[in-house]
């Protein structure tokens, strides 16, 4: 299985706090409107069948459902999925969740989704290229695939690891392994090898004084990547 047990356990241990906007997942709550808006601009979600890979507690999954999509979220953390299911009961937002690997779902349901998202997950798995290939298999011809991850360079290490985990304490220490960060050129290469056509990158910048995230053209730290499967 393309998963790191230590990484799964790390997120499972704090799964109960997934929907607390002041706890460990605060950055995801603050990033979510930016990500949702960018995705919806490129691939309008209303009426689309959408898959959220590595959905965790369902922050992005629920917001895409609210935007009018028919959403399925998958993850390998039963604890996180339990939290996601419970939250849908509280909010009444319809999302289908399943504990299954992306590769297994790709073998079962190829070409089944209009949009596939895989946010902040690639840097936590042993073989990210295999996840990209699964995404390409799962999306229908002409459909969109969206990724977000962290660039691998000294600046990213300084800000995403030292700054975010040890100084600003935006994230728990040990959240990220710098060696698993992925350069945009590498991710674009994975996408092309999987039969996806790169569409563009968008950077995410954190402003410490205002404590806000914003979209930018600077992909040196956090970035998103959009691509399409050839029709």
UniProtKB/TrEMBL annotation:
<dbReference type="InterPro" id="IPR010233">
    <property type="entry name" value="UbiG_MeTrfase"/>
</dbReference>
<dbReference type="GO" id="GO:0061542">
    <property type="term" value="F:3-demethylubiquinol 3-O-methyltransferase activity"/>
</dbReference>
<comment type="pathway">
    <text>Cofactor biosynthesis; ubiquinone biosynthesis.</text>
</comment>
<keyword id="KW-0808">Transferase</keyword>
<keyword id="KW-0831">Ubiquinone biosynthesis</keyword>
<dbReference type="Pfam" id="PF13489">
    <property type="entry name" value="Methyltransf_23"/>
</dbReference>
<feature type="binding site">
    <location>
        <position position="54"/>
    </location>
    <ligand>
        <name>S-adenosyl-L-methionine</name>
    </ligand>
</feature>
<comment type="function">
    <text>O-methyltransferase that catalyzes the 2 O-methylation steps in the ubiquinone biosynthetic pathway.</text>
</comment>
<dbReference type="GO" id="GO:0102208">
    <property type="term" value="F:2-polyprenyl-6-hydroxyphenol methylase activity"/>
</dbReference>
<feature type="binding site">
    <location>
        <position position="35"/>
    </location>
    <ligand>
        <name>S-adenosyl-L-methionine</name>
    </ligand>
</feature>
<keyword id="KW-0489">Methyltransferase</keyword>
<feature type="binding site">
    <location>
        <position position="75"/>
    </location>
    <ligand>
        <name>S-adenosyl-L-methionine</name>
    </ligand>
</feature>
<dbReference type="GO" id="GO:0032259">
    <property type="term" value="P:methylation"/>
</dbReference>
<feature type="binding site">
    <location>
        <position position="119"/>
    </location>
    <ligand>
        <name>S-adenosyl-L-methionine</name>
    </ligand>
</feature>
<comment type="similarity">
    <text>Belongs to the methyltransferase superfamily. UbiG/COQ3 family.</text>
</comment>
<keyword id="KW-0949">S-adenosyl-L-methionine</keyword>
<dbReference type="InterPro" id="IPR029063">
    <property type="entry name" value="SAM-dependent_MTases_sf"/>
</dbReference>
<protein>
    <recommendedName>
        <fullName>Ubiquinone biosynthesis O-methyltransferase</fullName>
        <ecNumber>2.1.1.222</ecNumber>
        <ecNumber>2.1.1.64</ecNumber>
    </recommendedName>
</protein>
